[in-house]
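HUMAN:
Just now I want nothing more than another pair of eyes on a protein record. I would be glad if you read both lines and explained how they fit together. I have put the entry right below:
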Amino acid sequence: MSKSETDFRQLRVLVLAGGPGAERQISLASGQAVAAALRSAGHQVIESDIAPDNLSALETQNFDVVFPIVHGTFGEDGQLQLILEQRNIPYVGSNSKASRLAMDKHQAKKAFELASVATAQGVLIKAKGLETEIDSQQIIQAIATVGVPCVVKPNAEGSSIGVVIGQQELQLIEAIEDVLLHHGDCLIEQWVMGREFTVGILAGEVLPILEVKAAGGFYDFDAKYIKNDTQYSFDLGLPDETVKAMQADALACFHALGCRDLARVDFILNDSGAFALEVNTLPGFTQHSLVPKAAQRAGMTMEEICDKIVQIAYDRPK
């Protein structure tokens, strides 16, 4: 799959990492891995941090295409993408509209449902600001609607930040209040028990499905990025029709949100079928990250992965 020297095109790539969000350190690690892969592939690479109040990297550097690998707030919610669009700068990844939609878990779930993809029932509680008293009755009603146990999560965060699986009403109330105070809008979601799978999508094509088995039972931030006891397996032991259906659902979610270039779609599978959890439009590129693992399973090196998507981004009609 590698390019020959005669058809290789060297690009000047600006890799943007870091950012202001809670996933900053993960983003910096992803940025280093992407930059190293692009250099190994033969590209000229500039690395820079970026934030809403510091866009100097876009103003002072000479580059052909941007590879934004800023996870979470600002980098993955459409803000950075809109800035790049307004400046007519080619960049890797989904556009601002798709990024914003994918980051809004509640709206994304509605898009999944419209695409006939199963997803867990969820109720959104809007944050009203610290100056406003939290409506306890609304919280209790939301819990009753979804049922106990259930999952509490920020509506617009990644990497399982702020996620709590609650078994008791008091625990859930406290978790919801914490999300509303510290993360904004809160999504209360039906807890679907089952096996956890992730489906990577690269250049519009589905990658091999990967099963994730967290030692503690919950694939949280520590299990994703810190601990080394999470198990990843491509030996699924699933019927071919189940695998194909999940891959088809992943593509349906990808297209329902209007994504492009790359993404990761997460699922829970049980006897009732596969339930889409969310779409990550800028999945990680660290040593723990799932899309690079799946792409390598399909025979692509990190150099080939990163080269492929920067070439696609550069060739996209301006």
Q: What stands out?
A: Residues 194 and 272 are 10 Å apart (CA to CA). The chain has three domains: 12-93+300-315, 101-118+192-297, 122-190.
